[in-house]
Amino acid sequence: MLLSILGYDWEYLYNIYLQILSEVLVYVKNFALYICAWVLSYLLVCGAVYRRYARKLPTRIRGALGAKRVLIVIAHPDDECMFFGPTIFRLCEQGTDVHILCLSNGNFEGKGQVRRKELWSACQELGVPVENICLINDTRLQDSPKVQWPVPVIAKLIHHQLESLAVDTLVTFDRGGVSSHPNHSAVFYAVAFMFVEKIMPQNIFCDGQKAEE
Ligand SMILES: [Zn+2]
After folding, report:
1. Is the pTM of this model over 0.70?
2. What is the whole-number distance in angstroms between the Cα of residue 130 and the centre of ligand 1?
3. At CA 53, angle to CA 203 and CA 72, rounded to 5?
4. Which of 7, 50, 154, 158 fits as disulfide partner to 54, beta carbons 3.0 to 4.6 Å?
């Protein structure tokens, strides 16, 4: 009655209500589309930037060392994957010239030939060219936790590789050999021996791989 007196009727108000509601819905729909388009554009830009730049950003090792040619010294086939896989993969991905010096053929269980092939296959997967793999088969360096590897022999082999390849970065085990294997630790002591005997070539950066806590 009052609304009629004021000149309004229910149908008129209902139409206004529907009009406002439809405009609000259109506004919400447009706003949602705008947000979706903005988020999608943002993700596309992030993806493009990542593909273009982020994969080439320096890792801790690359940035810290500026390594161009790296020698990874391992004791047995499989060490390259078990202990240095991410490092080798990342370095190869960045275009670093990675060389592997494997000091034995891993013949502990009489499977030296098999493990040798596995090393070659693993290196191919990691990105190391087969010509960059050097596997030593020396009777003094037999794969066994009970065999003490002569440190000067290892040092001589590493020294030869460092000099002949003009390596700028050496990566190997830490004192504990990561897994406490004596053959691994022997490599660390050989590198330490090279420093003590002052036969480590100049400008070599050494990084001992540490076990995960
Ligand atoms: Zn090993």
Report:
1. no
2. 20
3. 35
4. 50
Q: Which element (helix H / strand E) includes 169?
A: strand 169-173
- Asked which of 12, 34, 52 is the last residue of a domain, the reply is 52
CATH number of the domain to which 126 belongs: 3.40.50.10320
| d(CA 208, ligand 1 centre) in Å | 15
Full strand arrangement of the beta sheet holding 97-102: 133-135, 97-102, 69-74, 169-173, 205-209
Instruction: Give the distance (Å) from ligand 1 centre to CA of residue 152.
Output: 19
The pLDDT tens digits along the chain (213 residues) read 555 556 667 888 888 899 999 999 999 999 999 999 999 999 999 888 887 776 666 555 444 457 899 999 999 999 999 999 999 999 998 899 999 999 999 999 999 999 999 999 999 999 999 999 999 999 999 999 999 999 999 999 999 999 999 999 999 999 999 999 999 999 999 999 999 999 998 877 766 554 443
User: How many angstroms separate the alpha carbon of residue 145 from the centre of ligand 1?
Assistant: 9
Q: Which residues have their alpha-adjacent CB atom under 5 A from ion ligand 1?
A: 75-76, 79
